[in-house]
Amino acid sequence: MDRHSEFMQTLENWWYENMPIVEALAPDAANQQDRPRNVYVMRSSLLNSIEQTLAHQQLLTPFQVRGAFANYADSLKADFKSIAASGWGPELIPDEDILQSQFPEVLKEQENAQARLAELQALFAAASEEDFDDTDDTGVLPSSEVKNLKGELKTVNASWKAELKELKSLLGNLFVELNAAGLIPKGKKKGFYCSEGLVVKDPQFDNAQRIVDLCAEHNFPSEYLTPLQNAMQAGRQGFERSNVITGYLEKHKALEDEVKTLRTTIKAIENRRDDLVQSAREKISNDDARQVIVERLRTLLLDTYRAYIRADQRACVKAIENLWGKYAVTAKEIEGERDRAAEELRGFLVELGYE
Asked: What digits encode the pLDDT tens for the residues 32-49?
């Protein structure tokens, strides 16, 4: 890594030393009659210079050094010609660079939205596979399961609502019996036993236990007790299951809604990007544009050579891996050979009568 860092530092130093040659491409603002430098002359001059500067490094061959710079210069041929013809105009700054320098928060918002959208889309795609298992509890459901849960929810809701209705009827009948027997405590109204909390919006099925406890307190027998307790238990279980299913569906629906929101956000950002870029470009002076463009040229140069170094590094690693795969001998194999040789020697000694 030290050699890589040294290489990149040498390259960067070379850039700053030769940057005036690049800047001289543009016509002289103070003397419009001054003719700009020829792009091909600049390219040839810089190519010879960088080849000499990097002649003693050992990471890239001379061919790679020249090839990297040739690719760099060719990719920017149109930019260099525009600089030579028109100078450092803001129109030469790519939209992405303007947004990054003037509106980084917009790019960050778009990047975050795109990353989250990609994550969700991957989850929904995975959910459509047969062996999908939501081990991370993301909340994404296969479409078939969503359909099944909706069907089950409809059935479960109808069931517990029917149990609630039956429960209230049984409570009313039992209350009549207790009231006729004079067992209703003084001051307690019918609603306390028969209707309080027993509403469809948020049914409190356990409230029916009040009248059950009253019967137990007075050891009062009734044919309504058993069906009442059954309705209370079945209704409570049904309502709890309904809440569980609703939670699954709501979590899944929230993720679907998030996908829609993210798409809307990304589209809105894309729609206003052009306006933002245009308004920002109009405010950039030629001198500011020169600084931004030159910095971009420097970054692209470093990135080009960095890519060549990484490619060469990958090639070296692969070559080593191939050698390892072909010639490597594990410690286990060596120990096995040793044990076999020792066993063979022991057999010879036995035959010779030494053991």
From this structure: 444 546 888 899 999 999
